[in-house]
Amino acid sequence: MERTQKQDQQTAAETKEPRTGADLLVESLINEGVETLFGYPGGAALPIFDALYKAQSAFDQILARHEQGSIHAAEGYARVSGKPGVVVATSGPGATNLVTGIADAMIDSLPMIIITGQVAQGVIGTDAFQEVDVMGVTTPITKHNYQVRDVKELPRIIREAFHIATTGRPGPVLIDMPKDISGEIIDESFSPNIELDLPGYQPTTKPNPLQTKKLAEAISNAKKPVLLTGAGILFAKASEEVLEFAEKYSIPVTSTLLGLGAFPGNHPLFMGMAGMHGTYTANTALYECDLLINIGARFDDRLTGKLSSFAPNATVAHIDIDPAEIGKNVPADIPIVGDAKAALIRLLTHEIEQPEHDDWLVRIHENKEKYPLWFNKPEQDMIGQWVIKQVHEATDGNAIVTTDVGQHQMWTAQFYTFNKPDKWVSSGGLGTMGFGFPAAIGAQLAKPDETVVAIVGDGGFQMTLQELSILQEKGLPVKVIIVNNQALGMVRQWQEKFYSERYSQSIFSIQPDFVKLAESYNVKGLQVKSQEEFIKAIPEIFDYEGPVVVDARVLQQENVFPMIAPGKGLNEMIGVKP
Amino acid sequence: MKRIITATVRNRSGVLNRVTSLLQRRQFNIESISVGRTETEGMSKMTFVVDVEDFQKLEQVTKQLNKQIDVIKVSDITDKAIVARELALIKIVSNSQLRAEVQGIIEPFRASIIDVSKDSLSIQVTGKPDKIEALIELLRPYGIKELARTGVTAFARGQQPSTQDGSSYSSLLG
Ligand SMILES: Cc1ncc(C[n+]2csc(CCOP(=O)(O)OP(=O)(O)O)c2C)c(N)n1
């Protein structure tokens, strides 16, 4: 006999099936406003999935084909929606398959709620079937984690988890649910108003006015100021304030990889991204500046290069919601703990004398003119940079763009100019291959009406391409552009430059037929081999309503330039000019 | 340099694990940790002795500890007027003839013999770490069979001197 799920739900309600701990979990999630849920079932999580089945009208539930796909999709969702990404997986292998994504979300400060099934409490610690010490494994890669020991604690734990994940410096919070707790029959009713009691967690959002005043004074005295925008600005939704601030004092701006879009990429004050593959102008400005204002960036080593050459003559002001970031890598002369938006609003209220630094602006302008980003232009063959420029034009620079990790990622950061916040989704801190495509799925779920483009490498795509299933299942029109150099390009580049061209395990001699592969998932597939073919294919890709996978064949030997070699300083860029 | 740091934490499962894993992951050298309940229900106090290179590293230790959700308060009390104590149990090789001699050595330290057997003596001593160190050195020639130390536990004195000369109390760490 066939029955619809609706009928099932009704029968459940009519027969008054007993409520379980898992039902309480689901009610708590609904109470937190969760609408989209990324899950993958398994034994220890079955009570949870059963409760989700009963409540399915409450959520859009996404079944990825690998837990890693679930969590990267949830990360993409979190990045563009600003809401926490919620993932449910089972114990043991389900949980360990999430580890990469949890670590990725942790280092890039994405708000995430991860719920893992766990073996029943009676067998925890006995190496039971599919048991892993998830608390032990995830302690160093979560902002906080919980193992539920008493079903009564559950609503409080969920409330705390959402609060912790989304406030202060956002991050992943994991809740480990032993099976007996999820399956326990309960009669407590759910009460939505739970008072938070977290005396040890009180993020400072309001900056100290004495410190902001100090910074204001430093600005009026600075001859060579630079503003560095990090992803903290995006989390704080402070893009407008940054723009007003930079314009008010004519401060040139550079960005971290993850901060792209926080400040308009086409603004005359913008110098481009800084760091290992940043622009000459930005890196030189960081080297020469006498005042560096870092807002919401964590001074990653890919940004700073050799520390002794990083802003060596500058007074450093560092605004960050996480006090532990201030002074961690680069000592701060003016430390400001607080929310980026609150700090900028405060700064804008100080009456500051207009700084005089016209020479500096002229120098930066000249550098921008003289040392723009460049790439070789082969006659017909395609190269990654060119492909990305085409994608930029075809989408008017308005798409949400996700990437994997590698050369194509750096080229996208360089050549897809981001003018608006929350359009750029990439794995920065962990540099996780396989991130880009599922992240695009999450982004498209969060913003169904926007064009979402996943720019991926042929290597990284092969790590999570099974998620093509979701495109088909959910009708998501994600455009996947494989920048296919038939190699692990970034590795190949390093081997070429630093290992005497010994290409150890970095060239693919065999590749799948990406077109057939896409088609087997009912997704349109295209292969393009020349500039002409690519230009012709653009309407087929971007005017088409459904998802497309484009196998864009590019030259293998193209490298990312300019570059700061590992261990070198900002003033030692190579490949600045063709 | 050695520093004494105390942390008040909530008694929630995994706190100790979280704190030690944090210190280990960030390569902070811990000399000792002691943990126990406090006067407040649900709260414990941890006392760490850490060996750090400079003040920047030290600041990171306290900031990272502070970041933990269940950590309520972190203080570096090294330069404060503090009381710091450690307990050590020392089992040495001995026999009935030596017992009086040992007794004579440990008395000025206000240590006591807490177990006696045919060929060994167990001694208990509490005090500042340098005092314990000194006693161990004196007993070492007899042959130490077993040694257990609790690590320092400490807090600030009720009354703090009005002027601080900074360095003076670091000597408590020996
Ligand atoms: C999971 C994972 N494994 C290994 C690496 C190391 N890695 C960094 S870039 C890269 C090559 C990426 O190749 P591909 O996806 O084809 O992109 P391309 O660099 O060619 O654009 C590798 C292997 C990584 N970042 N992530």
TrEMBL record, chain A:
Supply the EC number(s). 2.2.1.6
One term of GO molecular function = acetolactate synthase activity
Recorded superkingdom: Bacteria
Protein's UniProt keywords contain NADP? no
Q: Output the CDD domains linked to this UniProt entry.
A: TPP_AHAS, TPP_PYR_POX_like
> Which PROSITE patterns does this chain map to?
TPP_ENZYMES
Boundaries of each Thiamine pyrophosphate enzyme central domain copy? Answer: 213-346
Q: In which pathway does it act?
A: Amino-acid biosynthesis; L-valine biosynthesis; L-valine from pyruvate: step 1/4; Amino-acid biosynthesis; L-isoleucine biosynthesis; L-isoleucine from 2-oxobutanoate: step 1/4
Query: Which residue windows are coiled coil?
Result: none
Catalysed reaction, written as an equation: 2 pyruvate + H(+) = (2S)-2-acetolactate + CO2
Which InterPro entries does the protein's record reference? Answer: Acetolactate_synth_lsu (IPR012846), AHAS_TPP (IPR039368), DHS-like_NAD/FAD-binding_dom (IPR029035), THDP-binding (IPR029061), Thiamin_PyroP_enz_cen_dom (IPR012000), Thiamin_PyroP_enz_TPP-bd_dom (IPR012001), TPP-bd_CS (IPR000399), TPP_enz (IPR045229)
Every Thiamine pyrophosphate enzyme TPP-binding domain range: 404-551
Domain annotation Thiamine pyrophosphate enzyme N-terminal TPP-binding: ranges: 19-135
**Name of the protein described by the UniProt record:** Acetolactate synthase
> What is the organism lineage in this UniProt record?
Bacteria, Bacillati, Bacillota, Bacilli, Bacillales
Automatic annotation (TrEMBL), chain B:
Q: Is-annotated flag, keyword Chloroplast?
A: no
NCBIfam families of this UniProt entry? acolac_sm (TIGR00119), PRK11895.1 (NF008864)
CDD domains xrefs: ACT_AHAS (cd04878)
Q: Keywords assigned by UniProt?
A: Amino-acid biosynthesis, Branched-chain amino acid biosynthesis, Transferase
- Chain ranges passing through the membrane: none
- First-tier enzyme category under EC: transferase
Enzyme Commission number, as recorded:
2.2.1.6
**Name listed for the protein in its UniProt record:** Acetolactate synthase small subunit
Q: List the PROSITE patterns.
A: ACT (PS51671)
Q: What does this protein do?
A: Catalyzes the conversion of 2 pyruvate molecules into acetolactate in the first common step of the biosynthetic pathway of the branched-amino acids such as leucine, isoleucine, and valine.
